[in-house]
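Notebook entry, structure prediction.
Reason for the run: the old model in the group folder had no record of what sequence produced it. Starting over properly, with the input documented here first.
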Amino acid sequence: MSYRHIPAMLNEVVNYLNCRPGKVYVDGTLGGCGHARAICEKIIPGGTFIGIDQDIDAISNAETVLKDYSSIIHLFHGNFISLPEFLNRLQIKFIDGILLDLGMSQHHIENSGRGFSFSKDEPLDMRMDIESPLTAEKIVNTLPQAELQKLFKEYGEERRAKQIARNIVKKRQQEKIETSQQLAQIIINTTPAQAASKQKIHPATRVFMALRIAVNRELERLETFLEHAVDLLNPGGRLCVLSFHSLEDRIVKQRFKALEKGCTCPPKLPQCVCGQEPQLRILTKKVVRPTEEEIAANPMARSTRLRAAEKL
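New structure, fully documented this time:
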């Protein structure tokens, strides 16, 4: 199966990761391997590349795309929160750079058949890892109305969360909601025509995003990973994160700031008593966005936000 994807902010990623020969780098979200291939090119000779993805399609694709670097790569099917376990298997204690690209690939939208797109009639699945037990269909058909509303509001920042949740519950009482088109139509029917005409995005965009986040536990896993990622880096090692919506970016921004500050004492205390030392130096004082030229060539990169930091 073809795994089509154009990597976002490729040059910026390689630059902020400071990829060098002989060093050890991790791509925690392989996707189409655009970033991975560029990293591998920079770390030979003598480097080590570790690629992780929870989508088995991405792992199969990586075996083909990165075949010229087979002597330096190690591929793992799983989520990036399992990186400590994978490093332990390789008997590697510390690494020199970590990349997380938190966006969806074109493969998921166009070819996965898992209902990520509201423009296709596919099973309402939305799992990145098809071995995971939770699907979007299960959430939509079993979650109480109040919890659906909360999910759409918090994860999707959807203004019509209450009305959409109510109409989903009404519909599922008549028939099971099994496909992406069924769900999209419910949302379209809930959105007043005048409001829909003024929106820059499809009415179903935010609800579909919220469901994908919930199914794959994206925010929870990102927070868990960032809690300990710095411990895996060598001094001078870099952590680079590409996020694609405000919820992800806020988590990254706040965690980087906390690790750069170190001290967690209340501001009123005359001196630090917590003993927490700064662990990171933020390299992107302001979030880095793609150029207009890149957006024109790759519209999916439009919402990309890049943040990077270096371990002290």
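Summary: The chain has 14 helices and seven strands.
The old model has been moved to the deprecated folder.
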